[in-house]
Every structure is written in structure tokens, then in C-alpha cells.
Amino acid sequence: MDDEDRRSEGRVGPVKEIRIDPFVSEFDMGLAQPLSRSVRLNGFATCLRLEQVYWDILGDMAKVNCCTVSALLSHVDREVHLRHGGVKNFTGLVRVVCVVHSLKEGGCVAMP
After folding, report:
1. What is the pLDDT at residue 4?
2. Each residue of 13-66: pLDDT tens digit?
3. Helices (H) and strands (E) in the chain, counts
4. How far is Cα of residue 6 from the mean position of the Cα atoms in its chain?
5. Are 60 and 52 within 8 A, CB to CB?
6. Which of 40, 58, 80, 97 is the most buried (most CB within 10 A)?
7. How far does Cα 19 stand from its chain's mean position?
8. What is the reported pTM?
């Protein structure tokens, strides 16, 4: 069995070529490197482990809001508790907030 057969195993139809390659020549693998940071969420010290790209986005968001990353994350934490009673996976929420912010800034998503 060759590589082509292995890749198409379990699929219906021919293997399609990927149009957009996420691993472009300039791709910086450092952005995918996880990094733990201590932050204060509404006065409580905690540690968040996020990939570098998310810390970069949070830094940009904090700069736009003239605050620290901890202040920005405290706001997210407060709002999710007030609006939804909390969240089980705060780090996952932070990733989604970063992606939605990036898509919104790029004009790729329609916000309600």
C-alpha cells in the first residue's frame, strides 16, 4: 500500500488538492509554541497556558483598550460570569475570543 492509498483510505471519491496551504513558507512555528503566564483575574492569581499567537492577539487587544492583558482577561472573566454564569474552560473561551476578534478585524465574520 503506497502513501496515496493510505491517505485516501476511508474516503469516498478522489483525493482533492488543498487550495490554501496553512504551512506557507513564512509560517512561524514559534506562534504555535505553548506558553504559560501568570495573570490576575479580578484579583486572583492564576496561570493560563496559551500558544504564543494568542498572547500576541491579547496584547494587541489590550493595547487597543489601553489596558493590561490581565485587565482585559478580568473583563472577559467578569462578563462570562455575569452573562452566562461562568464557563468550564476559560482558556478555550480566551482562544475563541481571540479568533473572533481576529476575524472581525479582518472583516471575515459578520457580528450580530
Report:
1. 54
2. 677 777 777 777 677 888 889 999 999 999 999 999 999 999 999 999 999 999
3. 4, 2
4. 31
5. no
6. 58
7. 23
8. 0.75
**Is 101 buried (19+), middle (13-18) or exposed (0-12) by CB count in 10 A?**
middle
Question: CB count, 10 Å around CB of 94?
Answer: 21
Structural domains of the chain sorted by starting position, each given as residue range(s) with its CATH number in brackets: 29-105 (1.10.3990.20)
Q: State the Cα–Cα distance between residues 51 and 57, nearest whole angstrom.
A: 10
Report the pLDDT value the prediction gives residue 17, as an integer from 0 to 100.
Answer: 76
Torsion of CA 64, 66, 68, 69, to 10 degrees: -20
Tell me, what amino acid is at 87? V
72 class by beta-carbon count within 10 Å (0-12 exposed, 13-18 middle, 19+ buried): buried
Q: What is the pLDDT of residues 81-111, one digit of tens each?
A: 999 999 999 999 999 999 999 998 876 555 4
Q: How far, in Å, CA of 90 to CA of 73, rounded?
A: 10
Q: Which triple of cell numbers denotes residue 91?
A: 482558556
